[in-house]
Amino acid sequence: MIATRRGDFLIEQRGPTDAPAIVLVAGLGDDHDSWAGPAAVLARSHRVITFDNRGIGRSPIPPGPYSTAEMAEDVHGLVSELGLGRVNAAGSSMGGAICQEWVLAYPDDVDRLVLSNTWAERDRWLTGLLEHWIELAGRGSGRDLLFQLALFCFSADHLTDHPQTIDEFLDAPLPSLDGFRAAARACQRHEALDRLASLRTPTLIIGGEHDILTRPTLSQRLAQTIPAAELRWLPTGHMTFWEQPDAWTTAVREFLAARP
Questions:
Q1: How far apart are CA 25 and CA 252, in angstroms?
Q2: What pTM was estimated for this model as a whole?
């Protein structure tokens, strides 16, 4: 647990402490353990920091709604408290939205940025789906919520090849439903596309070709807006680093190693 001016946050660190640091920011409903696979690989060459966002796990679960800018302040506070200096950052889905606000507010915090399966604009379809999930959480329908998350997060091919995936999702501990609702409101209200045109941080955008949650068009618009962005596709649904862990970590390591 790390005490910050924003509260006490659970973090996990892997890899050599003198290696370049990368902070991994999780998505909606995911705690730091969601990064276990890529974190283990990245820790061969980096100091890897994962943590529980506000609203989940052992980090604070204050009353909502939250905002992605507010959650970006949490990450900045953690990085400052750890004395990491400039870091690399990778965010998945909501974590990518948080990273956008983070680097916009504190550009000197981040050296290179990875935005995986995320979005930067208010989208009517995504907003409607999130509203449905907020309603499910509000009436305590946690199992129904997990079932829908599994269906929307994984591609049909992955579920066919790994039929145990949905059962594993349903067997997982429920996140705090109050925290989920508060963070989902942050997702609904995230809007950064116009501001990202000023971003000068080298950015890798990873999109899933079969992502029905944050659709490929949302990744394309991100890539078209951020001046120093490159776009990489993987043949996956929303959870690219779960479906294609080797391809995802390879793309990230190559990007982090590249220099102009």
A1: 14
A2: 0.96
